[in-house]
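Quick entry, no commentary yet.
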Amino acid sequence: MFSGKRTSKKISAKIQITLYLAVCLFANSACIRKDLYLRVDTTQISIQMFDVGLDLGMELLWGFDWKTAWHYEWDETNLATFGPIGYTKPDLVKTTIYNIDNQTGKRYSSFYMLFDAGGGRLRLTSGSTYDMLFYNFGTEYINFYQSEDYYTYNAYTRVSNQATFIRTRAENVFSEMPDTMKTYVDYNQPDELVGTVENEIVINEDPSNYYKEYDSDGNVTYVYRIDATLRPYSFIYLIQMVILNNKESAEKGNRIVGASGLTITGLSQGTDLFTRKTLRNTISTTTTDVKYMQNHDIKDPQDTTQTINVDIMASRLLTWGLPGIDPYENWNDETGTNGAALTPIEDNYIGIGFTLRNGYSWTITKRITDQMWSKPTGGVITIYVDASQIPQELLDKQETGGGGGFNASVEDWSNEVNAEVSI
């Protein structure tokens, strides 16, 4: 379904077809899969109805990574710290139906309908072939572009007006980026976008391959089943910043008290909704939503038999993922992991602007390529920062009264970038 290759689905119908769609948002062992039903009433003449009903799972796409790698406190019962962290159920689903030329196999026209969880109806034509694209409607930060030949359907966001937290080595001694690293344009975060494509649904007149049943009026109905699971197009990366050696002394307290934001480079500018392949254009994306600092005992990353006390901050970044790949290639539905051996197109860096106890800013940049490319569909990115490396002269500067970090509330996991976007 996600490779972009066409697989013909021949749907036999003499007269009337009713299409029922029940979809599961996530592909993992905790999610019950539903089917797409085509019901054919042979007592009528035209194909009449296309009914959609939604049943969306709410598990994290990368739940296995979450449970083993995440240190920041999150109450799974009442979501007291963050609110819902994973993908959320869409209120509306846009269904675009494409007419397919039976000779060339190309799309030549389209029409669309909007459905909520209660369903909806549309009219189809017997003897025709269709492609169907489903994705959640009502996004705020996403632009869509449908090519005139219906060959591509791209989703992307506009340039952001935020200042990035990326610094080259020449600008900052605490940057791992080479001086020759290219300058990235910073783009807005996308909304959560989930969807799927059903290719080559062929309406013909042979019901022999259908399951036969009867409706309440005794009419004969033939059922054809299609798996139609919605999966994310945009991906969530959760970033946890583990601060080592943060307390300088009992008198002076913590060196780092918060963070003003972070930027990740080497991300894709968008994706093609038909093929799920991400665009090769690389951008950076910034967020200023960094949660308040927590103190935890964790295993020492250098010696897992030992426990160390650290301060941890967390943030969430919505992205289009990594450039030039199909993120779901070799996806394992049972384990929720991606087994593809992906070769990075270019490096990913994260820049973080930390807030010091005297209100001054301290910016670092780290390479996170290996972590990002091992999680092409999103996941947990862990950054270790040694606060003892902060120059003492910066810490000893006169206090400005700037205060601590970004103390966000439960509802603050949404995008906070304001920009006019046309859909």
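second:
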Amino acid sequence: MNFTGNLNLDIAEVKRLLANDDTVVYRSFENKYTSNLKGIVIFTEILTGSALIDRHIISPLINSDLRKIRQLPYLIDTVCEKILEANEVKRIPDINEALSSLLIGDTLILLEGVPFACAANTKTYPARSVSMPETENAISGPKEAFCEVLVYNMGLLRRKVKNPKLKFKTLEVGKITKTRICLSYIEGLAEDALIKKIEDRLNQYEIDASLDSNYLAELLKDTPYTPFKTIGTTERPDVVAGKLLEGRVAILCDGSPFALTAPFLFMENFQTSEDYYTNFYFATFIRALRYLAFFLSISLPGLYIALIAFHKEMIPLTLLLSIVNSRDAVPFPAVLEMVMLLILFDLLREAGLRLPKPVGGTIGTVGGIVLGQSIVSARIVSAEMIIIVALCAITSFLTPKLDIEIILSRFFLLFLCATLGIYGYSIGLIILFVHMSSLNSFDVPFLSYQTAMKTQNAKDVYLRAPWWLMFRRPKAIQKKNVTRLRRKD
């Protein structure tokens, strides 16, 4: 529906659409030099600065001497181009589009006889300032994280990549919330087909709201039912900048401090930004620990149950006698013990995450020491079980991006080991590997570089080679402009 140019009718329609909203302010005005310029200023007091509007919008409209301008078209041009002191003024003929602009912080100016609204940019964002990352802490490297305001996040990226080829393409998602999202990529590095595919998938659904970037992640996944993440998430601008420089696309969502990156490969779960800010020998060692930690975290419970239930001959005699003695008075089967302890650990972890930080640390102490010691003393579980679960807990902390995948894979392998022993464990690993091999992230194989044992591929997968050896971008992501480092002649 378009504006009519009849000021009373247009105001009545706007008030009808914004009925029962006490945050909207209506300020009628008339120029003190000519009656040709009269109308109303509409703004939301929670998204704009009142002093800004008074000084740069209302005061110029009332106090500017416009007596020499008689014809309305010239008057409107003068108002938009010379009178309104805003860095952006748009003419919007559609009422719904104008209200969408109003509800993101713009100020609307409706004038008598004018069949459109002038929307002046007066946004002041209620938001927390840029802070340190909370989920991706690093000792060395940048200490800033994304916040909930889209334009601030775009600015953080622009500070990292000061190049006109860095592009921001904004879209709107959410039938009710009208959430702005932004596709960010570097022109010439990101494939056009990848950008189009992401846009097509976003336009494929009509959703009521997108309150966080993970709403979009579930809509964008190639395989929606897999527990493995095929869309990356990060709160660090330096990580996003690094992904963009490899030819990936980042998706920023207004209201969310987490950015999405695509395509996303399995190996990225074992990489951190700090790997590239420290010595490559140390980074390679830590990365190897992460791979080992992931393997132990999903395997230890199942292997322990398989050995004590089916393959006792594989355990050294002294250790076997110790296990038998410790389990002598335990009333539950070994597999039930393991399931109970793993669930208890997950309960304690969730409690520690959800409670306030001062109390969350206490939960860990009570659960890890007091409760663990008590249930062993009461002979409810054996001491060996506590050790296995504690090792699983420690190793899972080394790969926090894989927390959901670790929990599900751990229980899956535990079930197979409890029924088929070591054979079940082997079958489970094969099933997991085949499943991951079948996954794609925007037509890029999820296990790219994990299985192709070539020197060039291994430089940033199992190892972190020095920068002077990593002169090519990942070929699975970028097929044209693959050279990122060359020696100057």
